[in-house]
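Thread title: Can someone regenerate the structure for this chain?

I was given the following input by a collaborator and told the matching structure tokens would be attached. They weren't. Posting the sequence so someone can regenerate them.
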Amino acid sequence: MAHALAMARRGLGRTWPNPAVGCVIVKDGRVLGRGTTAPGGRPHAEPQALAQAGEAARGATAYVTLEPCAHTGKTGPCAEALVRAGVARVVSALQDPDPRVAGRGHDILRRAGISVTTGVLAAEAAALQEGFLSRITLGRPMLRLKLALTLDGRIATVSGESRWITGPEARARVHLMRAEHDAVMIGAGTARADDPELTLRLAGYDHRPVRIVVSGRLDLPRGGQMEASIPQGRFVLIHGPQAPQEARDHWMNSGAELIEIKEQSDGAVSPAALMRALGDLGLTRVFCEGGGAFAAGLIRAGLVDRLEVFSAGLLMGADGRAGLGELGLSALADAPRFHLSRSQQIGADLWQSWSRSA
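Best answer:
Regenerated them for you:
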């Protein structure tokens, strides 16, 4: 199952709206076939592994990181493919909560006389499938927020200078994180300050995450590198109902995809409506890179599942720009809490990965 989970990880960011699944087929201690969900979600992992195994799959054990599907989409159910191949046993990590499956895949296998074992490395599989599970059960993708901060929690000088707080090794790690997500997202403040392309710049990677910019009024820099980069991949602008028609026309003519969502009483785009809209797009894993006010809104709404904090060994003082906007807290007990899951030195910087406390 650990091997199957490693196979599944290869598909992160590439298979949405489908989950990234891994399958390994074994008989007599020998791996006969293995597969991972292909980019775009088809074909699934099981038929690829079965094709490698061929006739040798008869009587074998299939290790699958998620319950084999039981519904017919562009291809037939994976559970039935396993039955036709004549496997003797299926070991799965998780039951699929998708209403089209939800135990029916396991039932198909059992009715065919196949031994089924479930729950193997379930916690590890759930962590890997966090985005897919979030979209199915909560209607929104998993949200991972990246913060690059000084030791005193600043993201820019008083004049707005922010390049570069962290070193090249940390920035390369951020690009690796982008590669594991369906989409990269920023708020309007970061778009105006940095005019970023939001592309993945890693040698040997051809993955192009969806780029998302959230701007209630579409008051974004024109004619810069962000606009010029739109043809490089899918580019989505999320805006509110008050966005001027002239701005909408400009960005649509530039090739951007526009989605209107509702605003809050303070005029800001609703974080909850934003995440529902991203779930409706089919996105399962979103990597947010700020800025401070936008990130604070997502945290206030309880929508940040993981924090990736990169701390650099420099200080800016109280006149530097804070890494987070106001959270509106009056009591320590109300502060959002996260627990540390990993810490590592990367180059001259410190990377800490935090998960939201239950």
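Residues 139-356 form a domain with the Dihydrofolate Reductase, subunit A fold (CATH 3.40.430.10).
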